[in-house]
Design goal:
Number of strands: 10
Shape: globular
Helix content: 40-55%
Distance between the termini: 52 Å
Strand content: 5-15%
Number of helices: 14
CATH architecture of the largest domain: 3-Layer(aba) Sandwich
CATH class of the largest domain: Alpha Beta
Largest sheet: 7 strands, mixed
CATH topology of the largest domain: Rossmann fold
Structural class: alpha/beta
């Protein structure tokens, strides 16, 4: 490997715990420290660190070198997995329930949608296509933001070219309307691509997400499954702090996530009972928008 392995267990655990604190990742799926010896081993060599402890010391620094290296950590640990129309029901709920409700409450304001943890862009682009199909861009001013912790994923989203397997759930009519064949796969239509503003963010850092969380709709699905319980609660509380009362949150489904979201006391379930859809309560924090 090219670096000193003395005291390896302690060094691995220090690094793992630092990543848990800064990124919120549970790392449980990797039996704790195995993720450190796998995805990050290459970075340790590339940064000329002599040990895991040296790499830990690099990451706890305050300068630009440490900030840039955290971008590489997020890239190394990211697991992009997405596809168009993967969240078909969510798009339907946004189009048919959330936006009519929000437009009646905020008729004079741009309606802001944030895809938090957008991977390579399929989710926000699917939302944009669904809104376009329903004529929402002619009826209201709508802003769509999308972010991910991996800068490589955002670069791919900006490029907007996808392989066959990423669009296999699209009807042929939608595919032909919104994509053209490209030597690298299928290129999304420019008029849809330019509706999205792309950013790289760490959901655990308030200054990076405060403006994005100031949204009427937040989708954060298939993100919290990688987080620790405390990181989920912290992130949800940060969301609620900046969301307007009555805003919609789309989180993961299931009893565990229902309990975690409920425990924040910031959200109440959608009256229809649709799983994983929450409304920001009007009696917490301040109404930012």
């Amino acid at each position: 490997m090219g670096y000193e392995r003395t005291g390896l267990d302690l060094e691995e655990h220090l690094l793992r715990d630092l990543i848990r604190e800064r990124l919120g990742l549970s790392l449980a799926a990797y039996d704790g420290v195995a993720v450190i010896t796998g995805p990050l081993a290459k970075r340790i060599q590339q940064t000329n660190c002599g040990s895991f402890l040296d790499y830990y010391r690099l990451l706890i620094g305050d300068g630009a070198t440490a900030r840039n290296e955290w971008r590489e950590v997020m890239l190394a640990l990211s697991k992009p997995k997405s596809g168009f129309w993967r969240q078909r029901q969510m798009a339907k709920t946004i189009v048919e329930t959330a936006l009519p409700d929000l437009f009646s409450v905020f008729p004079a304001q741009p309606l802001r949608i944030w895809s938090a943890g957008c991977s390579t862009g399929e989710e926000p682009l699917s939302i944009a296509m669904a809104l376009n199909e329903a004529g929402w861009f002619e009826r209201a001013s709508i802003e769509i933001n999308a972010s991910d912790g991996s800068y490589a994923a955002i670069e791919r989203a900006i490029r907007g070219v996808y392989p066959d397997q990423r669009i296999d759930k699209l009807d042929v009519q939608l595919r032909d309307r919104y994509f053209t064949q490209d030597p690298g796969g299928w290129r999304v239509a420019p008029e849809i691509q330019r509706l999205i503003q792309w950013k790289v963010t760490n959901l655990m850092i308030e200054r990076e997400i405060a403006d994005l969380a100031n949204s009427h709709v937040i989708s954060c699905r298939n993100v919290f499954i990688y987080f620790t319980d405390s990181a989920i609660r912290k992130t949800l509380t940060l969301f609620a702090k900046h969301m307007p009362a009555g805003a919609y949150l789309f989180s993961d489904e299931g009893e565990f996530f229902n309990d975690v979201v409920s425990a924040t006391r910031c959200f109440e379930p959608l009256e229809s009972g649709e799983s994983g859809v929450w409304i920001r309560r009007n009696d917490v924090f301040s109404n930012v928008i």
